[in-house]
Design a protein that fits this description.
Pfam families: RNase_T, RRM_1
Number of domains: 5
Number of strands: 32
Largest sheet: 6 strands, mixed
Keywords: Coiled coil, Exonuclease, Hydrolase, Nuclease, RNA-binding
Protein name: REXO5 exonuclease
Number of helices: 28
Structural class: alpha/beta
GO molecular function: exonuclease activity; RNA binding
GO cellular component, one term: nucleus
Length: 713
């Protein structure tokens, strides 16, 4: 059975918010994969990335979460097909962050749309350097060699032989116990090892002095039988070791004689060499750690030698590594770092060079990429403080053709311009033809300028806030004149957290106005308490009746069927003192329970009296509802139903309802009457956009990752 690609995300509840960096992680891994130096995103998981047919990003310019929920019913395809939904953190320039900061691309026409030429724009030197791991570790100022030797804690952390350690029993000390100064001599050390019955044993040792002169270059006879000569890396063969008489103890003695008492040893991952030599040396510079990278990664010696020294070492044409060559390269790298200082090293932008190098290595057309690498190298030399390449640059270097279609273009300064002569329909027709031919596509649809006026956006915001508030609100009554308000609050509180509760006295008999904090609570109150006896009265429970609320029942039904709410249920009536651990224990018997979300008050951090349960499938959620409804937890009777609001919408509603206060909503509406025509036209445009997305989506190949972005206004 063919493996299918899919995306799984663990974000649930109020954590459904991602940054642009996290979006970049997903796009880079989906488009490039492991073989192109990309890693799985930290916040989600792409299954079977190698089977992905392509990546399509649809950008809906001038649209935000506000538009999505204002025209929720119009986005019929979008809300039913797209399984995951996340809130993006705000950005001053969305596309700049999407394409990579500091990147300037000049488009040229091709048969497959627009292909970007790879160019880089210099950015602020200080802003780039401050983020460099080398600068974070060593600062900007040049220092003496003693500042770059590993501390005792660093040696322990990185597996160096330590005097007195149980693991180093029988190891020999070099005897170099004199205090080091910035004038202490440097020595480059490297060993080659073969696999024996004992483990890794030294078969060749090289030592060079500060001038690069070879002081020691000896083959060593292992103590036990060789299992694997590792000739491809060590360069050692059985024939080479046959006449060798030198043993490890001989090498230890010679090293002790050669090294002065204040010697500083330099090597690349020198801990492996010292472990194999069974020697302890107190002062070392490890070039794999000196040229620091993020997240514990390390540059290879071969890459550093080429990028910094311009030397080719460990060549494929040679039989294995040359330990003298490697020892000398490590020594020269340390000398370069000490002489030039951290700032100069950081300005080389090694991460960019590595990205270009790796992408070139895995590309099948190396000759065509040679001029590309030379041009990038020249730009690095001419202007060393450059921005890191974004994923579009990486795609181009690997020979892929990223496609960009839309009204939005970038001029020579990198600023966004509008080409209003291109319609959304024309963009769609071009996308239907070109997207199947591209492995990575960005399709940009736009609203017209008449739909992004500030007064129209302000009107939409007021109306969305008003409708959400009305959906969170219920009226209950009539009650007797002297009814117990506390018992009413207690009964309705069992449906979920209450924002406010007031008595309506304008009517013949008193009613109660209740505003909830979650949609599910208001809906539960309507479904369960309408016609029930509360505080001695048989009451009616209903939502406000306004023009905007006439389609409330339809909207509630569609929210319940939303693909993101599939397998999610809402549970109310919990004690506020219960923790997530308590609830996991209480609901542990429920089949296929995937995760649990216990909402918190955004202001004081306290738990609500409700939670959301997410199941692996909708059938398990239905079965859980039957079990939970009517059962008790810690003496409290529970009420539950299918979820209506996903995590990011729940957070948004909380913020909107908290900020709504008691401002005169109806007064605001009177001022917004003139916007009704524009809003009606906008509703039609949104419906067309949803249809465009549906047509494009149907044209995509199986196993295509499709992302729709509402970048905001």
């Amino acid at each position: 059975q063919e493996k299918s690609s899919r995306l799984s995300a663990t974000l649930f509840g109020e954590n459904c918010e991602i940054s642009h960096d996290q979006l970049f992680e997903l796009l880079k891994y989906a488009a490039l994969g492991k073989c192109h130096n990309a890693t799985q995103p930290s916040w989600c998981h792409v299954h079977h990335q190698s089977h992905l047919a392509g990546v399509v990003v649809i950008v809906l310019h001038e649209m935000s979460q506000l538009h999505f929920y204002k025209f929720y019913l119009q986005f019929k395809h979008l809300r039913k097909v797209f399984q995951h939904r996340f809130t993006l953190t705000p950005s001053t320039n969305f596309l700049a962050s999407l394409y990579g900061e500091g990147a300037n691309r000049k488009p040229r026409n091709t048969a497959q749309g627009i292909l970007f030429d790879l160019t880089f724009t210099a950015v602020s030197k200080s802003s780039v350097l401050q983020c460099d791991p080398i600068i974070r570790k060593y600062g900007l100022e040049k220092q003496g060699l003693t500042s770059y030797t590993l501390t005792l804690d660093e040696q322990k952390k990185n597996g160096y032989p330590i005097k007195g350690s149980p693991q180093c029993k029988g190891f020999i000390c070099t005897g170099c116990d004199q205090q080091r100064t910035d004038s202490s001599p440097l020595f480059g050390l490297d060993c080659e090892m073969c696999l024996t019955a004992k483990g890794n044993e030294v078969t060749r040792v090289s030592l060079v002095d500060a001038q690069g002169q070879c002081l020691l270059n000896e083959l060593v006879k292992p103590e036990t039988t060789v299992v694997n000569y590792r000739t491809r890396f060590s360069g050692i063969t059985r024939k080479m070791l046959l006449p060798v008489k030198t043993r490890l103890s001989d090498i230890q003695t010679r090293l002790k004689k050669l090294l002065p008492r204040d010697a500083v040893l330099v090597g690349h991952s020198l801990n492996c060499d010292l472990q194999a030599l069974e020697m302890i040396h107190p002062s070392v510079i490890d070039t794999s750690l000196l040229f620091a990278r993020n997240e514990g990664q390390r540059f290879k010696l071969k890459f550093l030698a080429k990028a910094i020294l311009g030397k080719e070492i460990q060549c494929e044409k040679k039989l294995g590594h040359d330990s003298t060559e490697d020892a000398r390269a490590a020594l020269e790298l340390a000398q370069f770092f000490i002489e030039q200082g951290p700032a100069k090293v950081a300005e080389l932008n090694l991460e960019m060079l590595l990205t270009i190098e790796k992408l070139a290595e895995v590309s099948g057309n190396k000759a065509a990429l040679q001029s590309q690498r030379c041009r990038v190298q020249k730009q690095l030399n001419d202007s060393p403080h450059l921005a890191k390449p974004c994923f579009l640059d990486c795609l181009h270097v690997t020979g892929q053709n990223p496609l960009l279609l839309g009204r939005q273009e970038h001029n020579s300064s990198g600023l966004r311009q509008s080409n209003l002569s291109t319609s959304n329909k024309q963009i769609l027709q071009r996308a239907l033809e070109d997207v199947p031919l591209s492995t990575f596509s960005i399709i940009q649809f736009s609203l017209g300028p008449e739909y992004i006026a500030s007064h129209l956006l302000a009107g939409l915001c007021v109306k969305v806030r008003s409708k959400l508030t009305d959906m969170l609100t219920i009226y209950a009554g009539p009650f007797e004149d002297r009814f117990c308000l506390k018992s009413v609050e207690k009964e309705f509180g069992k449906c979920g957290p209450i924002q406010s509760l007031t008595v309506v006295t304008e009517t013949y008999q008193p009613y109660v106005h209740i505003q909830y904090k979650v949609l599910e609570a208001a809906q539960l109150a309507v479904e369960i308490l309408n016609g029930a006896e509360v505080a001695g009265s048989c009451i009616k429970v209903q939502r406000p009746v306004t023009a905007a609320m006439l389609d409330c029942d339809v909207l509630i039904k569609e929210l319940e069927l939303d693909v993101e709410n599939e397998g999610v249920i809402y549970v109310a009536g919990l004690k506020k003192s219960l923790t997530e651990i308590d609830l996991h224990k209480e609901f542990s018997q429920l089949k296929d329970l995937e995760t649990l979300f216990l909402p918190k008050n955004l202001q004081n951090g306290k738990h609500r009296n409700c939670c959301f349960l997410k199941f692996q499938n909708s059938q398990s959620a239905v079965e859980a509802l039957e079990v939970i409804n009517g059962c008790t937890v810690k003496g409290r009777k529970l009420r539950s139903r299918h979820a209506l609001a996903s995590g990011h919408l729940w957070r948004w509603i909380s913020q909107m309802s908290d900020s709504n206060g008691k401002q005169g909503r109806h007064t605001l509406f009177e001022k917004l009457e003139q916007l009704s025509d524009s809003e009606q036209d906008l509703r039609k445009e949104v419906k067309k956009l949803d249809q465009h997305i549906e047509k494009l989506y149907r044209r995509l190949q199986n196993n295509t990752l499709c992302i729709v972005l509402f970048p905001g206004v």
